[in-house]
């Protein structure tokens, strides 16, 4: 395996060694780091995910395979950072509640932060009694997840967004071609994931299980994770390699979700397994239109953020953050 000098510098600085021969690093600054939330004591970790190619989807022979996991295709992915852990309530609650953010901030909120649109106050306990400290934030809509990323950008000046489905699967596989990044033996899942067999029907504090080879904790289980894609029932037929694919839509449902959760069975935690959002998760929401921000029946759904190595233009960033919400009746 050939490694260029920039990648070697990244590894020595704390980066994660990729397990793919065609991975490449474009910057000496591409290394693991902690993102501080300005004027607070809070941080969250990010790990570098090297550029490379992989086969997206699962083979017909994989146990538990669903038809929406194909057809398989070769995908090329640009380098990005990914959150080492799922976003916790410790950070998400600052976005959720401006008064709380102001109370814990060491300085007054800037006008830009103060003026952000925030989630409506949920009429339920959105922790579902599972706790907040170091616990994954749960129950937000895809729109709510993107607006959290906008809050992060306004606070930090760093562009964060949701991963695409291709980025998520590439990062989860970490160079593997098996059902799980550690192989095909599902009996090993307990070392890496909280799922139906060991979770006792609850989320758990982040980072208690082993990470995958690229430094991602709880990439399987604990909570499902939003992607930025629309869900399509099958991948498009392609010729050759596809670069950075993403599915877009003007429809609210379904949107693509990955990773499985604390209530998922072992086969639902496979790297290629896909999930789709559904309006059923808002059945008990009494509002008309229903909330843009919350799924009151999705205590198993959370977020993990990414940061592309190449920062988009300000115009592209604002176009991503300022997508208008779609009314949900």
How would you describe this structure to a colleague?
The longest helix is centred in the middle third of the chain and has 15 residues, at 142-156. The protein has one domain: Alpha-Beta Complex (paralog of FGE (formylglycine-generating enzyme)), CATH 3.90.1580. The radius of gyration is 19 Å and the shape is globular. 44% of the residues are buried. It has 329 residues and is an alpha+beta fold. The chain has seven helices and eleven strands.
Distance between the termini: 54 Å
Report the structural category. alpha+beta
Rg, nearest Å: 19 Å
Tell me the CATH topology: paralog of FGE (formylglycine-generating enzyme)
Tags for this model:
329 residues, alpha+beta, paralog of FGE (formylglycine-generating enzyme), 7 helices, 11 strands, 18% helix, disordered N terminus
Briefly summarize what is shown.
By secondary structure, the protein is of the alpha+beta class.
Map the helices and strands.
Layout: H1 5-12, E1 33-36, E2 43-49, E3 52-56, E4 73-77, E5 80-83, H2 89-96, H3 98-104, H4 111-114, H5 142-156, H6 165-173, E6 224-230, E7 242-243, E8 255-258, E9 274-276, E10 301-302, E11 306-308, H7 314-321
Parallel strand pairs: 4-7, 6-10
Antiparallel strand pairs: 1-2, 2-5, 3-4, 5-11, 6-8, 8-9
Helix pairs in contact: 2-3
């Amino acid at each position: 395996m050939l490694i260029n000098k920039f990648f070697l510098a990244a590894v020595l600085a704390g980066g994660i060694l990729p397990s793919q021969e065609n991975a490449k690093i474009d910057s000496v600054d591409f290394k693991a780091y902690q993102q501080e939330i300005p004027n607070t004591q809070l941080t969250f970790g990010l790990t570098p995910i090297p550029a490379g190619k992989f086969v997206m989807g699962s083979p017909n022979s994989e146990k538990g395979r669903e038809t929406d996991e194909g057809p398989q295709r070769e995908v090329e992915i640009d380098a990005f950072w990914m959150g080492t852990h799922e976003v916790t309530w410790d950070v998400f609650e600052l976005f959720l509640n401006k008064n709380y953010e102001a109370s814990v901030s060491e300085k007054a909120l800037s006008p830009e932060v103060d003026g952000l649109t925030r989630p409506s106050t949920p009429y339920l306990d959105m922790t579902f009694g599972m706790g907040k400290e170091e616990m994954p934030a749960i129950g937000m809509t895809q729109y709510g997840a993107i607006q959290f990323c906008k809050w992060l950008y306004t606070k930090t000046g760093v562009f964060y967004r949701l991963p695409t489905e291709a980025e998520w699967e590439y990062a989860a596989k970490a160079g593997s071609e098996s059902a799980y990044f550690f192989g095909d033996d599902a009996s090993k899942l307990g070392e890496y994931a909280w799922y139906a067999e060991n979770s006792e029907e609850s989320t758990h504090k982040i980072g208690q299980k082993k990470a995958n080879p690229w430094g991602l904790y709880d990439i399987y289980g604990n909570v499902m994770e939003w992607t930025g894609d629309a869900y399509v029932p099958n991948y498009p037929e392609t010729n050759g390699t596809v670069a950075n694919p993403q599915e877009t839509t003007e429809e609210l449902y379904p949107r693509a979700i990955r990773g499985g959760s604390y209530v998922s069975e072992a086969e639902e935690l496979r790297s290629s397994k896909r999930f789709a959002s559904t309006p059923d998760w808002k059945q008990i929401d009494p509002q008309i239109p229903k909330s843009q921000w919350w799924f009151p029946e999705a205590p198993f759904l959370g977020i993990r953020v990414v940061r592309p190595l190449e920062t988009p233009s300000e115009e592209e960033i604002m176009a991503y953050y300022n997508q208008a919400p779609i009314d949900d009746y």
